Amino acid sequence: MSESMRDVAPHGARRPPRWNVVSLLAPVAGFLGAFLLVSVEVNRQNFDARRGWAVGTLYGVAVLGWACGFIAIRRAERPWGVTVSGFVLNAVLFLLAMLFSI
Q1: Which of 89, 17, 49 is nearest to 40 (CA)?
Q2: Is 84 exposed, middle or buried (0-12, 13-18, 19+ CB in 10 A)?
Q3: Is 41 helix (H, G, I), strand (E, B) or coil?
Q4: What is the pLDDT of residues 17-61, one digit of tens each?
Q5: Helices (H), 1-102
Q6: Contact at 8 Å (CB) between 73 and 83?
Q7: Would you list the domain boundaries of the chain?
Q8: pLDDT at position 3, please?
Protein backbone atom coordinates (compact mmCIF):
# COMPACT_ATOMS: atom_id res chain seq x y z
CA MET A 1 0.00 0.00 0.00
CA SER A 2 1.42 3.34 -0.95
CA GLU A 3 2.10 5.93 1.72
CA SER A 4 -0.53 8.34 0.40
CA MET A 5 -3.19 5.63 0.55
CA ARG A 6 -2.46 4.97 4.22
CA ASP A 7 -4.11 8.25 5.29
CA VAL A 8 -7.28 7.67 3.28
CA ALA A 9 -10.18 5.55 4.48
CA PRO A 10 -11.25 2.63 2.23
CA HIS A 11 -14.28 4.48 0.83
CA GLY A 12 -12.18 7.46 -0.25
CA ALA A 13 -12.95 9.82 2.64
CA ARG A 14 -10.16 11.27 4.70
CA ARG A 15 -9.50 10.05 8.20
CA PRO A 16 -11.00 12.27 10.89
CA PRO A 17 -8.66 14.84 12.41
CA ARG A 18 -7.14 13.67 15.68
CA TRP A 19 -3.63 14.96 16.07
CA ASN A 20 -4.45 18.59 15.46
CA VAL A 21 -7.14 18.43 18.15
CA VAL A 22 -4.63 16.85 20.55
CA SER A 23 -2.18 19.61 19.63
CA LEU A 24 -4.82 22.20 20.48
CA LEU A 25 -5.89 20.58 23.77
CA ALA A 26 -2.38 19.78 25.06
CA PRO A 27 -1.63 23.34 26.27
CA VAL A 28 -4.93 23.49 28.13
CA ALA A 29 -4.22 20.20 29.88
CA GLY A 30 -0.65 21.27 30.63
CA PHE A 31 -1.71 24.60 32.10
CA LEU A 32 -4.32 22.92 34.30
CA GLY A 33 -1.83 20.29 35.43
CA ALA A 34 0.80 22.92 36.28
CA PHE A 35 -1.79 24.99 38.12
CA LEU A 36 -2.80 21.98 40.19
CA LEU A 37 0.82 21.19 41.00
CA VAL A 38 1.39 24.69 42.33
CA SER A 39 -1.93 25.21 44.08
CA VAL A 40 -2.12 21.99 46.09
CA GLU A 41 -0.81 22.40 49.64
CA VAL A 42 1.04 25.63 49.18
CA ASN A 43 3.60 26.27 51.87
CA ARG A 44 6.88 28.06 51.50
CA GLN A 45 9.00 24.96 51.95
CA ASN A 46 7.52 23.01 49.05
CA PHE A 47 6.71 25.89 46.73
CA ASP A 48 10.05 26.04 44.90
CA ALA A 49 10.06 22.30 44.25
CA ARG A 50 6.45 22.37 43.05
CA ARG A 51 7.20 25.35 40.84
CA GLY A 52 10.02 23.40 39.23
CA TRP A 53 7.71 20.48 38.54
CA ALA A 54 5.06 22.85 37.14
CA VAL A 55 7.55 24.52 34.79
CA GLY A 56 8.78 21.11 33.65
CA THR A 57 5.18 20.11 32.97
CA LEU A 58 4.64 23.23 30.89
CA TYR A 59 7.78 22.59 28.84
CA GLY A 60 6.96 18.92 28.33
CA VAL A 61 3.38 19.52 27.25
CA ALA A 62 4.42 22.32 24.87
CA VAL A 63 6.90 20.02 23.13
CA LEU A 64 4.30 17.23 23.02
CA GLY A 65 1.80 19.65 21.49
CA TRP A 66 4.29 20.70 18.84
CA ALA A 67 5.00 17.05 18.03
CA CYS A 68 1.27 16.37 17.65
CA GLY A 69 1.00 19.40 15.38
CA PHE A 70 3.79 18.11 13.15
CA ILE A 71 2.08 14.71 12.99
CA ALA A 72 -1.14 16.48 11.95
CA ILE A 73 0.74 18.30 9.20
CA ARG A 74 2.34 15.06 8.06
CA ARG A 75 -1.05 13.36 7.90
CA ALA A 76 -2.49 16.41 6.07
CA GLU A 77 -5.42 16.71 8.44
CA ARG A 78 -7.89 19.17 6.99
CA PRO A 79 -8.82 21.86 9.54
CA TRP A 80 -5.58 23.81 9.18
CA GLY A 81 -6.85 26.48 11.54
CA VAL A 82 -6.95 23.98 14.38
CA THR A 83 -3.36 22.94 13.72
CA VAL A 84 -2.15 26.54 13.54
CA SER A 85 -4.05 27.37 16.73
CA GLY A 86 -2.35 24.42 18.43
CA PHE A 87 1.08 25.67 17.35
CA VAL A 88 0.30 29.18 18.63
CA LEU A 89 -1.05 27.96 21.98
CA ASN A 90 1.96 25.69 22.45
CA ALA A 91 4.29 28.60 21.71
CA VAL A 92 2.46 30.73 24.29
CA LEU A 93 2.72 27.88 26.80
CA PHE A 94 6.45 27.52 26.11
CA LEU A 95 6.98 31.27 26.61
CA LEU A 96 4.92 31.13 29.80
CA ALA A 97 7.14 28.33 31.06
CA MET A 98 10.22 30.43 30.26
CA LEU A 99 8.71 33.33 32.19
CA PHE A 100 8.00 31.17 35.24
CA SER A 101 11.45 29.58 35.19
CA ILE A 102 13.20 32.94 35.70
Answers
A1: 49
A2: middle
A3: coil
A4: 899 999 999 999 999 988 888 887 666 677 778 888 888 999 999
A5: 3-6, 19-39, 44-75, 80-100
A6: yes
A7: 19-100
A8: 54
